[in-house]
Specification:
There is one protein chain. The chain contains 16 helices and no strands. It is mainly alpha-helical.
């Protein structure tokens, strides 16, 4: 069972303190994770070769797929574990952890092997040309064929550890991998002269180290934690697979549809130039800052909301949602202003190529304007996931990525050319926010009635 301190944080600590204690480390770890994802693009950009930057952009959707797998088992498992702890069912929580971790390991291993076999067909299909194919092949081999399992496991473990209230430890593990990657990138790229392959090796090694950290943490806490790797705890019973997969599906779908979205962007952009591909790659990497803040703020409070929902403490649950909404929106507005006003300097820091900077500056300003919309949508998705709802978060995830932006990319490309492609992203984010508000209103009214019915 989670220790007494974590019970106090979930059930008794002042709501603002509980929200900040859970969300702040998660936001920091998300930002560091973004930083290490951006590190590859940054350090490769210093080589001055737009083809290598473009190659990383082309490969990124396939790498993001790994985050989708981690979210499927990590967020789905974390939601069920927090609800089990709120209901006092530690055994089911252990079985949930074992199912999530072993299934995630098997699926990610299979994905890595499939990409190794399908590279000659897959890479040209997602936007690699003669100038970028070799670089793409090297990057995919190290980050996915070799690195799929540790990449998925360290993220999934972070979610599960956070479900017990160990937000700081989970965030430290994520940050450890990120910082190590930032340190290793320039070493492998420049002194060792490995270029894009060096960046990929650094990413793989950093994820291995982060995974080892989480395994060591679980071993040290083995007498108090419900996070278990023991094969005897693995089960397909008690509706655990259904709960984990269906609740984790929306977050996974958002990443997977993000893969299709990025592939579509690259395929459309490559019709203009590799500089345009590199420019949108940099802009999307930078915009991940807004997404990281929104994701960190929402995912951080998922166990707090889920725990109090199962404990039927609806007053505390609604207070946590309101507090997190105000904080998330405020931070999102500040992030958007920063990214918009500093767009030129930020893009130029990644690559000195003048044409790429011209594209990237404009693309970043277009994409970042709906940062607050992302914050609202993500909080709604997390609130639904924390109580075990499946349909509403799935709809929102599909709308935000794939359902709206891909059709609009083709429409706007036909109407406004290369700049129109980029405008599809803020259009989709605004549309998803509107639907999120519509779906959230009846959910909130029901919670309000439950609060009023409590003594």
């Amino acid at each position: 069972m989670a220790n007494r301190n974590n019970h106090d944080l979930f059930a008794e600590a002042p709501v603002l303190r509980a929200v900040v204690s859970l969300a702040l480390p998660t936001v920091i770890s998300q930002l560091i994770t973004v930083a290490y994802n951006m590190a590859d693009t940054f350090f490769i950009g210093q080589i001055g070769d737009a083809n290598q930057v473009a190659a990383v952009s082309v490969c990124m959707p396939m790498f993001i797929f790994l985050t989708g797998l981690a979210n499927l088992f990590g967020i789905g498992g974390a939601s069920l574990i927090s609800r089990c702890l709120g209901a006092g069912d530690s055994q089911k929580a252990r079985q949930t952890a074992a199912f999530s971790l072993w299934t995630a390991t098997g699926v990610s291993l299979l994905y890595g092997l499939l990409l190794a076999l399908l590279r000659p067909v897959l890479l040209p299909a997602v936007g690699a040309d003669e100038e970028t194919y070799g670089f793409c092949s090297q990057y995919i081999f190290w980050t996915i064929t070799v690195g799929a399992v540790p990449t998925v496991l360290n993220q999934a473990l972070a979610h599960l550890v956070r479900a017990e209230g160990h937000s700081a430890q989970a965030s430290f593990g994520m940050a450890l991998g990120g910082v190590l990657n930032i340190v290793l990138d320039p070493i492998f790229i420049f002194p060792l002269g490995l270029d894009v392959a060096g960046a990929a090796i650094a990413t793989m090694l950093s994820n291995v180290v982060a995974t080892v950290y989480f395994l060591a943490l679980i071993f040290c806490k083995r007498r108090s934690t419900v996070i278990s790797f023991h094969p005897r705890q693995y089960t397909w019973g008690k509706s655990i697979p259904r709960e984990v997969l269906l609740v984790g599906l929306p977050s996974s779908l958002m990443n997977l549809m993000g893969v299709l979205s990025n592939i579509t962007v690259n395929r459309l952009m490559v019709g203009y130039s590799n500089a345009a591909v590199a420019g949108i790659g940099v802009a999307k990497k930078v915009d991940m800052l807004s997404y990281a803040v929104a994701t960190g703020m929402s995912q951080g409070v998922l166990p707090l909301i889920g725990y109090n929902y199962s404990a039927k403490n609806y007053r505390r649950m609604t207070a946590a949602i309101k507090t997190n909404f105000v904080l998330s929106l405020a931070v999102a507005v500040i992030s958007t202003v920063f990214l918009f006003t500093c767009a030129g300097a930020i893009v130029q820091a990644f690559i000195p190529d003048a044409e790429t900077v011209k594209y990237g500056r404009l693309f970043q300003r277009i994409i970042c304007i709906t940062g607050p919309c992302i914050s609202v949508t993500m909080l709604a998705i997390t609130a639904f996931q924390s109580v075990g709802k499946k349909l509403a978060p799935t709809i929102l995830s599909l709308l935000r990525k794939g359902g709206l932006d891909i059709p609009f990319m083709f429409i706007m490309n036909a109407l406004a050319g290369v700049n129109g492609i980029v405008w599809a992203t803020p259009i989709a984010d605004f549309g998803a926010m509107v639907v999120a508000i519509i779906l959230f209103i009846p959910f909130w009214r029901r919670l309000t009635r439950l609060v009023k019915a409590q003594p």
